[in-house]
Amino acid sequence: MSSELMALGIENIGLDLSSSNIADLDLFLQEMGRWNRVHNLTAIEGAEESVRLHLIDSITVLPVMRQFLTAANPKIADLGSGGGLPAIPIAIVQPTWHLTLIEAVRKKTAFLQHVRGRLALKNIEVLSERVEAVAQSRPRQFDAVISRAFTNLNHFLDLSLPLLKPGGLVFAMKAKRADEELLEVSMSNWTLLADEALHIPLLAVERRLLVLSPAITPSTL
């Protein structure tokens, strides 16, 4: 895949990506495509569609995340990481952020471990466990939690809460059902800090990033 194809979307997002970033993102998608032919990591195929729906969908959240994550080395958990989205593109572009990819399906964690080594990503770790198990073994250890199409918002928040440090944040990547899912959330327990529309260049798909924080800390539950 050419860097020109990458620039088809990336140049309009407002991220200052280095040539090394673009090369690593390109290699990530190549590896995903190669493994997907055998292991069915994702239903989306085709180079251009992968750039827009996988990679650009993942990194378009970064301008908002940078506004909220002001610590030098935040610890972020990606729940139900699947093929590494959005965590691996984020880790490539933000090398000082530490990302923990939580995925229970073994063939997917095998791919994540492969990509970690292939790209020499020292700022990620891969856990082949259910989210509930990680919450028990690592309670309140993360500054933020993120997910892309993992589960409905209310369930995602329930899973996220025990993982978060006091003052931690949830970044929920959502599509057109975001309003419907927000109605199911008890806003006495959560504060909606931001609801940002995300623009994927040249693609008419609604994307939103919801940023929430617990109104109460996990230790008080």
The backbone outline, from C-alpha atoms, is globular
Strand content: 15-25%
Percent helix:
40-55%
Main sheet strand line-up: 3-2-1-4-5-7-6
Question: Roughly how many Å apart are the termini?
Answer: 49 Å
How many structural domains in the coordinates? Answer: 1
CATH topology heading: Rossmann fold
Low-confidence stretches: none
> Mean pLDDT score, rounded?
86
Look at the helices and sheets and give the structural class: alpha/beta
One letter per element, helices H and strands E, the order comes to HHHHEHEHEHEHEHEE
Q: What does the model show?
A:
It comes from Polynucleobacter brandtiae. This protein has one domain: Rossmann fold. Helix content is 40%, strand content 22%. The protein has helices spanning 3-10, 19-39, 47-59, 62-68, 87-93, 106-118, 131-137, 153-160, 178-182, and strands at 75-79, 98-102, 124-127, 142-148, 164-174, 190-198, 207-214. Strand 1 (75-79), helix 5 (87-93) and strand 2 form a beta-alpha-beta unit. Helix 1 crosses helix 3 and helix 2 packs antiparallel against helix 6. It is globular, with a radius of gyration of 17 Å.
Compile the SSE list and pairings.
Blueprint: H1 3-10, H2 19-39, H3 47-59, H4 62-68, E1 75-79, H5 87-93, E2 98-102, H6 106-118, E3 124-127, H7 131-137, E4 142-148, H8 153-160, E5 164-174, H9 178-182, E6 190-198, E7 207-214
Parallel strand pairs: 1-2, 1-4, 2-3, 4-5
Antiparallel strand pairs: 5-7, 6-7
Helix pairs in contact: 1-3, 2-5, 2-6
